[in-house]
Amino acid sequence: MLIVLLLLIPLLGGLLTMFTTEKVAGPIAMLAGLATLGIAIATYIQYTNGYDLMVNHSWIEYLGARFTVGFDHGDGLAILMMMLTAIVFPLIFISLINKQPERQNTFYGLMLFAQVGLMGVFLAKDALLFYVFWEIALIPVYFLSSMYGGPRRIPVTFKFFIYTFAGSLIMLVAILLIYRHAPIRSFSWDSFVSVGSAMNAGEQSWLFWMMFIAFAIKMPVFPFHTWQPAAYEQSATPVTVVLSAIMVKMGLFAVIRWLLPVIPAGSLQWMNLVILLSVISIVYASCMAIVQTNIKRMIAYSSIAHIGLMSAAIFSHQLLGLQGVAIQMFNHGITIAGLWMMVHIIENRLGTQDLREMGGVAKVAPAFTIGLVVMSLANIALPLTNGFIGEFMMFNGLFKTASVYHVWFTVVAGLGIILAAVYTLNMIQKVAYGPEGSRVPSFADLKINEMIVMVLIVMMILVLGFYPKIMMDLIYVQPW
Amino acid sequence: MMFAGIVLKKTAQVQGVAIIGAIVLLAGAIFDLNLVSVESHTYFNMIELNAYSAKFNVLITFCVLVYFMLFSKDIAAVGKSDADYFALLFFVMCGVFLLSTYSNLLVLFLGIEILSIPQYILAGSDKKNIKSNEASLKYFLMGAFSTGILLMGITLIYGATGSFDIFNEGFIRQFQHVSGLSALSFAGVLLLVISFGFKVSAAPMHFWTPDVYDGTPTAFTPFMATIAKVSVFIAFIRLFHFSFGNISTDWQAAIAGMIVLTLLIGNITAVYQQSVKRMLAYSSIAQAGFMLFAIFAFNTTSWKGLMLYSVVYTLASLGVFSVLIKMKDYTYEGFNGLAKKEPVLAATAAICLLSLAGIPLTGGFFAKYFVLSAAVEQGKWIGLVIFAVLMAAVSAYYYFRLLRSMYFTEGDAELKNLPTTVEKVLLIINAAIVILLGVLPGIIENVTG
User: Fold this and answer.
1) Closest approach of chain B CAs to the CA of A457, in angstroms?
2) Chain A: residues touching B (Cβ < 8 Å)
3) Of A172, B50, B68, B83, which sits 20 to 30 A from A241 (CA to CA)?
4) Secondary structure element (H or E) that encloses residue A415, with its range
5) Are A151 and A192 in contact (CB under 8 A)?
6) What interface predicted TM-score (ipTM) does this complex get?
7) Nearest chain B Cα to A157, which residue?
8) Structure pTM?
């Protein structure tokens, strides 16, 4: 029942906000977001106490597709992702209190619909349901990114949409092919795992690429990343939070849950190539991040670099690596959400995204700077921030990869850490220190709602950095 | 209906009679459903009403009812002889029912002709508009040509089998690999494929479609693009799956070729269109390409797929056309800013466009899913499915272009006349059904048994 509520509350909230008056839209959305968070925490507690949390309803009899959502024993990663989705959305809503977007009904309604789709991707244990939610998450984000944002948002978002859509359609064909091999018509995860792993190497090879294309575009991994920097730059920053903190995790999650177990031989066969692409992503994106002058583009490239590391660690096929990815997915989500919200504050106060026009914010807004610096340090994976433990485990797993090139992969990926420090510290210096930018003196420090968000995120960064055991317990079993 | 025009003076009354007629037809079709669940009925070996026919009849009559409710005012506004237009539409329906239940090739011919000839007249019904005249002439010439090919095919098959009865033992025996397929029957089957291709506007026999759909008065284009086309598909699948099923490997190659060309030409040309009406015409060619998958794949899923596709495609197209018909300017720029001016129109059109593009949560996704799944099920030519899926992504471009004009571009969309509340409610119900079919596609099964 709780599981269904996780999907139902944002859906009803979204419908309500769309059809009520402007004034009530914000509060209703906040209520829906907080209610979902409450249910998520309740679900987490029930999961750790070993309750059965599966919902299995008949949906399309003829196809054997069932409405199967929920968490089995060993679904720690899905729980983490559900918590991430439930946490980030209320944080976004809180951060918007002092600067509401135009047409609040539409904005909050679409945000909540996006939450339904994202939640569903992490909850679904039926392949067709998973696909449906995958696409459902895309449509509200398409509308949000096209309605709110920079001047070039419409063609950029359109490119993002078509690119992702084409990839997902190819994944659909792969799902159909696997489904066809099942002796009993079923889309359930268990059926897919048993059918897929039984297929011969040649077929698995094809299926791997058909499915991986969709995830590679979503994550994104070099060379399918070209849609991302522009899309992140042009969309309105609250929407960028959703894109960067949660949507990319959809791609990683799908690889762990729907690609590795279902197409094991294929994943092993192409492991080296995928890790190579991921490692190239890391270095390429980090280098690009260093030379950016637009803060949003810089963080976008930094995101690609982080995702590259996670993707490489997934394909290491090592338990430690996979567990590291699970932790990092949650931590990166929180950290990057915080960073984007800091960028949102910069945008609003200074009216610019250009790093060259900023500077000296530390003197004028010390609280803001503390938040920015802590989140940036978490981005670099400084020990005692939440970003460290995940990176450490991932590098461990990457080093243990059963591949001839495992040392090379780890060394080049390790460059990513250094480069991350370069661009992040560069960003901090350009924003917070140095000569004052022209509009900086009027930079008001954090308002109450922004302070709440910043404190919550910094707390999470530090608590999870000091005591990551909370998360480790969840994923001690294999992350799928 | 025709005579209603003489008796009833007011247009509204004529429209009322039409809608009542459609409701009566629907009731009759539903009654037939019960009939069929007991046994299938045959009339003089010419017509056979089996389960699929009865299901299709109910679905198509429902679609016609929706069409009448959405468009009756616009149909009457085309010209002075409004009762005649409705009468012609009902004649077309007669052809539709013949096509869904024929068991004799002569009845097939009869059905195709009864389907087409009133459409030739309807295409030209806007007498003062030269594009309408052009459309009617083009349609008539191409239609007559394709009917000629149909007759040639039927004749060759008659020559090979000695019978017109498609369910006859002797007939089906001719079309098996065991006894060898004579050149006569093979040529007949191919000619039938080509002639059906003409009627459903599959490439390379699609060249008449854009001009005809564009020239026809916008009140009739949706009917031609959806209900008439879908009925021919049912006739197509009926013949090919029941009678020619055993030699499916022979004609599947031809249909595969048609699918590739249709999807390619339909989608790529639609991308370049500047007029929304013409874009919808090309989009109907592309959608026909997907429906051809149901013919191509020879299994039960393809029947279900075709039924679902028919309903979903019809309702979604009717939704988009009923917004189009209210606009003054049929180009994309004419839709700019529609979302601000008329949010209900824009929202329902958006849902129908998403359905046509095949986005999940709308019926269009499951329609495409079923037909593609049928193709995957029969195992051969998987590359065709991947190609179709890529073309679906291309199709998203032109559907979303319209979405973009409506929602994200500033402009003053001009409407011919403001929609009434009744019209808005009907559009909302239409969109709601599209979403319902997207969430629970099994409903078609449950409703029609």
Assistant:
1) 34
2) 59-63, 128, 131-136, 139, 143, 146-147, 154, 158, 161-162, 165-166, 169-170, 172-173, 176-177, 179-180, 210
3) A172
4) helix A406-432
5) no
6) 0.85
7) B404
8) 0.90
